[in-house]
Amino acid sequence: MWPLTLALLTLLVLALPLTPALLEWRRQRDIGPLPIDGEHTLDVGAVAAGFRALLTAQPVLPGQAARATPDLSLEPLVRVNGAFVPSPAESAVGLCARTIVGAEAVLLPDDYAFARDIYGRRSIRTGQRNRLQGLLSDGGIVMAAGSELRRWAHASHVHVGERCRLLGPVGALQSIRLEAGCRFASVSAPVVRFGRAGGADGTAASRYAGAPAGELSPAEARDGRWLVAQDFTFPANRLYRGDLVVHGNLRIGTGAHIAGSVKASGSIRLEAGARIGGALIAGAAISVEQGCAIGGPVAAEREIRLARFCVIGSPDRHTTVVAPVLLARVGATVHGAASALELGRVESDSDAATAKDHPCPP
Length: 362
What we know:
Low-confidence stretches: 63-71, 198-203, 357-362
Mean pLDDT: 85
Structural class: mainly beta
Largest sheet: 6 strands, parallel, barrel
Radius of gyration: 27 Å
Shape: flat
Strand content: 35-45%
Distance between the termini: 78 Å
Number of helices: 6
């Protein structure tokens, strides 16, 4: 009898840790999809759509019942048409804690903080040194110099003035322009221009590169893939039709053209006028000099520097640039998205001159 009792007790002790798994297997409570908060993804379009749905649910006139549930209400809310006029209490503290909704345009005063989101159907023009949360417009958004966006913004086109800080994602249906001194986390649009002088159509890039002097056909290349097991310098003004993989640092000479993708375990430097047809991936840093053109995604594990007249992607081929640190010189252009996981900054000519003291290897 005692051996049987001991065996039963042993089985019971061993089975207890498996009880939750057995219950879950029988009840199947985890078959539904997990909810994902769109604001914690970089899909700023989804966040804007959620805010637009809340706007639709709000009463048009005071006294009307809101169709939104209380926990989704945008109240307290103020409707404006033109310049926003703060209340005496808001003027005293320099803070507006109301949602602002503009039937047409919204014009904000200088040196104010806004604790809730703002919508302007035709446009939003912020004041200088504003502190903002979320911005949504069916037309354009203009952020004046020195302002800070803490959450997100979405519009048809966005212009961000000098020395602004974009802590959250910014998306546009047409274009985004960031002036010198701006810091950003993630921007996405069919065309993203850093500063006023860009080469969005590729013509600025093409003037730095002539026709390749000759085509390379290395014996080491197999099936369109060239593998180099050490640091390598791709010769200037030469063409290679295939992918290049380098176990080490890579330098691509002036006017060189690689029709495929390029990957290096170390750093990559593109000299002026170099062209890459596909992706550009580095295990360390990437430095892209003037007039380069890259057709596919650009990613580095450490840092990316884009010089003037660089063009990433094209109007009919949107792509992505991503790195922990992304430094874009005034005049560079990205078609698609640019994301900096730690620091994104638009550099002026003076900033770039200072950076020469700490060049990107190799």
